[in-house]
Design a protein that fits this description.
five-stranded parallel beta sheet, five-stranded mixed beta sheet, 13 helices
């Protein structure tokens, strides 16, 4: 009981055995007898949740998956964690260490993900420095989740764009005079080049440095493929282009269409959706707000329809 897999059958003494058999109910089970059963019509709050009965696969890195899993579970879904990536520090942190040693030389510090914030400060603290080292810098972030992670370290951002993508950061900087300004951009090794390219066109001196990189995860792949074959997964969520790319690597190329035939695919935003489409996936849901709450809201609306 009280899981997304629970099932309730109501009947009379005359037909309950037949109904239980038809429904495939087995032990463990609870049997309730009497007039109290009639209260079910007004008390069945659990099954009324919008994602009740849906099994949703989360491909996000395990360290960042809890927020998405919690929100989907609250909406009634059963979540399966199959992370397709994990976050690791750069193999060679020389350039990052040099930037940390020369922080007074920079005018701006830009973060394009919460992971970049975490990895940057982890390295900063490892070098025996603290937030006072950033006292002369202005900061910009790509969205509210990144802003919140920055706030966790005691800093507010000077720029938080309304739309959560690199293009919005570029638009925000059009109001700033960055000509000749030196910008530190610590981020993922695999990040799109549009942000440093456009800032450079504005006359900024951009120091793009690897703060972390993503590596594929392939644990429990056989179990995942079996569940897809059994049609027990209703939806798969993608929260970045990396999750899509590495998910595809897990599946046999000649079986992808068959395995995903009855599966709904949900993406956190248009960049991730474009990556998925280029890889041959049919994305059914793209969040309007490119955040975890926005993704959950889009999934809820989809199933309500």
């Amino acid at each position: 009981g009280t899981t997304a897999r629970q099932l309730t059958v109501t009947g009379t003494l005359e037909n309950i055995v037949e109904k239980v058999t038809e429904a495939g109910l087995k032990s463990p089970a609870i049997i309730i007898v009497g007039d109290v059963v009639h209260l079910r019509k007004t008390m069945k709050w659990f099954e009324n949740r919008p994602l009740y009965g849906k099994t949703i696969m989360v491909t996000r890195a395990r360290a960042q998956a809890s927020d998405l899993v919690s929100r989907l579970s609250e909406l009634g879904a059963q979540c399966l964690e199959y992370p397709t990536i994990k976050i690791e520090p750069p193999e060679d942190a020389t350039h990052l260490d040099q930037a940390l040693s020369n922080l007074p030389d920079y005018d701006w510090l830009i973060f394009t993900s919460a992971n970049a914030v975490s990895c940057f400060f982890e390295r900063l603290f490892l070098k025996k420095k603290d937030v006072r080292s950033l006292g002369n810098l202005k900061t910009a972030v790509i969205g509210p989740a990144t802003q919140q992670r920055l706030t966790d370290f005691g800093l507010n951002s000077d720029i938080v764009p309304f739309s959560y993508r690199a293009e919005s950061v570029i638009d925000a900087f059009e109001k700033e005079d960055v000509k000749g300004k030196k910008i530190l951009l610590p981020r993922a090794k695999e990040a799109r080049p549009i942000l440093p390219e456009e800032l450079t066109k504005m006359g900024a001196i951009v120091d793009e440095i690897e703060a972390y990189h993503t590596v594929p995860v392939s644990e429990n792949t056989d179990q995942l493929i079996q569940q897809l074959k059994e049609n027990t997964i209703h939806m798969i969520t993608f929260t970045s282009s990396s999750t899509v790319k590495n998910f595809k690597k897990l599946l046999p190329e000649n079986e992808i269409d068959t395995l995903l035939k009855n599966v709904t695919l949900a993406s956190i935003g248009p960049i991730t959706s474009d990556t998925a489409k280029n890889l041959g996936f049919n994305i059914n849901i793209t969040a309007d707000t490119f955040t975890i709450p926005g993704l959950c809201e889009a999934i809820e609306k989809y199933y309500k329809r």
